[in-house]
Design goal:
- Helices cover 33% and strands 20% of the residues.
- It has 25 helices and 29 strands.
- The strands form eight sheets. The protein has an eight-stranded mixed sheet. A five-stranded antiparallel sheet has the order 5-4-3-6-7.
- Helix 3 crosses helix 4 and helix 8 crosses helix 9.
- The longest helix has 25 residues.
- The two termini are 31 Å apart.
Length: 715
């Protein structure tokens, strides 16, 4: 082990060299291109070609998939050029519609890319098409075209069309003629090839591929955060799936439903009517649920929003029975329903004053409606979308993965857990069906080849149970007549595994309201701690200077879930370090800025709790960055700054490098040994924004999943 005190003197020669080359393609990207040639595309290319074209991403990726689905840079650049030319020549910008009309007139025929909607003209018994950007109407469409593409009648479809022009002296004759029409979506794919290729990826690699396909950089998402993103795909792969997501603005709740698939329709919550959604009884025409796989309601929240009671009643019946009435006839449909909306309060505020459905319009804040929801995505766990979160790696061309998911809607994977686990007998039929649908959807997304370990199956089962429990626990607050449920499962040896929601662990004082049914339910271990003592909402606000009595300090192991908030070094570590004058910190990964910042924040906690006249010696044992001289130099610079900053507060940091260490721990001269499962690197990414509370206060950050063990070696 080499001891380094003058870190600034140990910078290796040649460390000034910097690499300005384009980052090399990752191993995962190479694997993706090898196993899925022709159906993957680099995700940053969409921005490169979009320009001012107001079109969904799947339209652009359809074109990129035709011309730039390669890992060869020359092919990619040529493909980008081709797609840009196609958009320039054929995409119709609304402010250039008259120019395009003139082009069609002068040439007699011209190909365009536009959104096309068809209607039936009952008077003349013909179908008419309307072109959204071109601004022309009443273009005659053949009945065969409508039969082949019925979605033209409900919401419209982006298409590549040949438009002809022929003027007539008869003013009643529209001069525009539809020569040909081709909806923008994949015509066929090899499903068996998809399953075979899936088997070549690990679970983490496959999750990263799917997250990149959505458009995000998986390196900036924890495992649970990736699962939450993938739950948004379940409505596309599971029939009649009812999903709700409420959370802060700007977290991308509606993105997937507007950009990801040609089989989904996103509509504003205020635009919903019975004829538009279900059926127009005046003419018998089916609404959106009859034609689309997914109907998503944007901006669904809002207490004061006016709602149609008849619509709510029909929707409740459809969500429960998968059917609705057209006069005396009962019709079935397979469309999944998604409800997304913004919250205006924090989770603890909602738990203290109302419930997690508090933002919904009054007519939907009803236990009968809410009980039909299969899963509640906790939108407050999802990061606000930032520029660096978008991926420049390879992912599926979205119309390819959209067709894969669509092809699996008729499959049922809901019983795949039963070889290993049994749901609680306390769970009702409706709760069980909800858990089954979420479990089936995630299995189809993650393990379509049906190769998974018991541990992987258990993870998905727990996640499915948690999402339904979040729904049911809030219903119990609204309707006291609802039966309480004990959510959990048994393994094959009969061990009971209770399941809790993350907010249940974070805010137990607010979650279990006195007098409510939920207050009597099982409270799983693993709650946030103050000095290792189980925390309450009030305890989590303890100031750093408050020392916890020695005999109250917890001894044993604690687990923290990914995305949990309310955790800080003040409560997690500082009480155990109070009074120590010699502290040894062993962590091999104090290398990058955020890791060094975490250590500095721990030093800050020590500085504000010790006596001003005392000094504390910290011995840091870490390992050198082996990823290149430039990164090693940066590590040295960061540690030197940390030493200098700590010395101002009477804390002396001695840095030692040891390449053989792996375990992480803290030892004090007061007799405590603290085993750190993942070292001090417990927090997820935070911005450097001075106006972001998470950048200033650890309690507002989300954590990675980690464990910590407190051992008192002498008293």
């Amino acid at each position: 082990m080499s001891e380094v005190n003058g870190i600034n003197q140990e910078i290796p020669a040649g460390a000034n060299a910097r690499a300005d080359a384009i980052p090399a393609q990752s191993d995962l990207d190479r694997k993706i291109n090898q196993l899925f040639p022709g159906v993957v595309v680099r995700k940053d290319l969409v921005k490169a070609v979009k320009g001012n074209a107001i079109v969904p991403s799947y339209v652009l990726e359809y074109l990129l998939g035709q011309y730039a689905a390669s890992d060869d840079e020359a092919t990619i650049q040529a493909g980008i050029g081709t797609v840009r030319k196609i958009l320039a020549d054929h995409y119709v910008n609304r402010n250039q519609s008259e120019l395009v009309k003139s082009t069609i007139r002068e040439r007699g025929r011209h190909r365009i890319i536009d959104k096309v909607t068809a209607t039936l003209n009952e008077k003349d018994d013909v179908y008419h098409a309307e072109f959204a950007n071109l601004g022309i109407k009443s273009v005659i469409v053949e009945s065969a075209t409508i039969k082949a593409h019925p979605k033209l009648l409900v919401g419209g479809v982006w298409c590549i069309c040949d438009i002809e022009y022929f003027h007539s002296n008869d003013a009643r004759v529209v001069p525009w003629i539809l020569g040909s029409i081709k909806p923008i979506q994949l015509s066929n794919f090899d499903f068996e090839g998809y399953l075979t290729a899936r088997g070549e990826f690990t679970t983490e690699e496959w999750m990263d591929l799917l997250v990149q396909s959505i458009g995000f950089n998986p390196d900036l998402f924890g495992h649970r955060a990736k699962l939450i993103q993938l739950v948004r795909l379940i409505p596309f792969v599971e029939r009649n799936y009812n999903l709700v997501e409420l959370g802060p603005k700007g977290t991308g709740k509606s993105h997937i439903f507007s950009e990801f698939s040609p089989h989904g329709m996103l509509i504003s919550g205020g635009e919903v009517t019975v004829p538009k959604l279900f059926v127009n009884n005046a003419n018998g025409r089916l609404g959106l649920v009859g034609y689309w796989d997914v109907v998503a309601f944007d901006e669904f929240a809002g207490k004061k929003k006016r709602t149609d009671k008849a619509l709510v009643d029909i929707m409740k019946n459809y969500m429960a029975n998968k059917s609705f009435s057209r006069g005396v006839e009962t019709l079935g449909a397979e469309a999944s329903m998604v409800f997304v909306g913004n919250t205006s309060h924090t989770v603890p505020y909602m738990l203290k004053h109302s419930d997690l459905f508090d933002e919904l319009p009054e007519s939907y804040h009803d236990s009968a409606y809410l009980d039909r929801l299969h899963h509640y995505i906790p939108g407050w766990e999802v990061d606000t979308i930032r520029g660096e979160m978008f991926s420049n790696g390879y992912g599926f061309v979205v119309d390819y993965i959209a067709e894969v998911l669509k092809s699996m809607r008729s499959m049922d994977y809901s019983d795949r857990y039963q070889r290993h686990f049994t749901l609680s007998s306390d769970i009702s039929t409706r709760d069980r069906d909800s858990i089954h649908k979420t479990f089936s959807g995630l299995m189809k997304i993650l393990y379509p080849h049906e190769e998974s370990t018991p541990e992987e199956i258990e993870e998905i089962l727990r996640f499915a149970i948690e999402g339904r429990k979040r729904v049911k626990d809030q219903i119990l607050r609204i309707d006291s007549t609802m039966a309480d449920v004990k959510f959990g499962y048994l393994d094959k040896v009969g061990t009971w595994h209770p399941v809790s929601t993350l907010e249940e662990d974070e805010y137990p004082a607010y979650y279990y309201r006195e007098g409510s049914k939920g207050a009597e339910t099982e409270k799983p271990a693993g709650n946030p701690t103050v000095g290792g003592v189980a925390a309450t909402a009030e305890d989590s606000q303890l100031p750093a200077t408050k020392a916890i009595a020695e005999d109250l300090l917890f001894e044993g192991h604690r687990e923290f879930q990914e995305n949990q908030r309310g955790v800080s070094f003040e409560t997690l570590l500082a009480p155990y370090l109070h009074g120590a004058t010699q502290i040894t910190i062993i962590d091999p990964y104090i290398r990058q800025f955020h890791q060094t910042r975490n250590l500095m924040e721990l030093i800050e906690c020590i500085a504000v709790t010790k006596e001003a006249a005392d000094e504390v010696d910290i011995k840091l044992i870490t390992s050198e960055n082996t990823e290149g001289e430039d990164k090693l130099r940066k590590q040295y610079e960061l540690l030197l700054k940390l030493q200098q900053g700590a010395s101002v507060g009477g804390i002396n940091v001695d840095v030692n490098f040891d390449g053989s260490i792996h375990d992480r721990s803290i030892l004090t001269d007061t007799g405590w040994r603290i085993l750190l499962g993942r070292g001090l690197d417990i927090f997820q990414y935070v911005t450097g924004d001075a106006f972001d509370l998470a950048s200033r206060l650890q309690e507002f950050r989300q954590v990675k999943a980690f464990g910590i063990t407190y051992i008192r070696e002498n008293k």
